[in-house]
Specification:
Blueprint (H helix, E strand, L loop, with lengths): L3 E5 L6 E5 L12 H10 L3 E5 L6 E5 L12 H22 L1 H15 L4 H16 L4 H18 L3 H6 L6
Antiparallel strand pairs: 1-2, 3-4
The structure holds zinc ion (2 copies).
The site of one zinc ion (ZN) has 8 residues, from loops.
Length: 167
């Protein structure tokens, strides 16, 4: 158990212990914060705050492009998933036709294996959405998505036939 060494952080000067093991380099900093801070100060990286989890993170400075809004791919997906779900919730409350369409859809999906298909379409949509940063474009993509869906399916049959399966 005598693998531990005491190191000094190059940024804040604090001592920290590090367990030696394998061939990796010894860390220069006591924490991720100090490591990020150092990179930011040295100009190689800048710091940004994740829109989803609020974590500060460092990112590589490039000549073009905005600061990234998310610390991770996971947070990026989360953001657009919430946007997507929020959009559906909002329209569900405000738009009666949309609501009825969703209800009919849900009834159908509940007894229909195509629920799996729908999942797939949604994740494809979310993948598309993650490529877009402009809110206007996001909106029009969502509009188009739901318009297409409603146009391509005839709901009349499934609405009247829904109750016999009662779920
Ligand atoms: Zn430190
Ligand atoms: Zn995050």
């Amino acid at each position: 158990m005598e693998n531990k060494v005491i190191l000094q952080c190059e940024r804040c000067g604090k001592s920290f212990s590090y367990e030696k093991g394998g061939v990796g380099r010894m860390p220069k900093f006591c924490s991720e914060e100090c490591r990020n801070e150092h990179r930011v100060r040295s100009g190689k990286e800048k710091q940004s705050i994740c829109k989803v989890c609020g974590k500060a993170f460092a990112y590589q400075v490039k000549t073009r492009g905005r600061a990234p809004g998310f610390c991770s791919e996971e947070c990026r997906k989360r953001y657009f998933l919430d946007l997507h779900n929020g959009y559906i919730r909002k329209r569900y409350h405000e738009d009666e036709e949309f609501r009825n369409r969703r209800k009919a859809q849900n009834a159908r999906y509940a007894r229909d294996r195509r629920a799996i298909e729908k999942e797939k379409t949604t994740s494809e949509l979310i993948n598309q959405l993650t490529e877009i940063s402009d809110p206007g474009q996001v909106r029009s993509l969502l509009e188009r998505h739901f318009k297409l869906k409603s146009g391509s399916h005839s709901l009349s049959g499934s609405i009247s036939g829904g109750s016999e399966y009662g779920e």
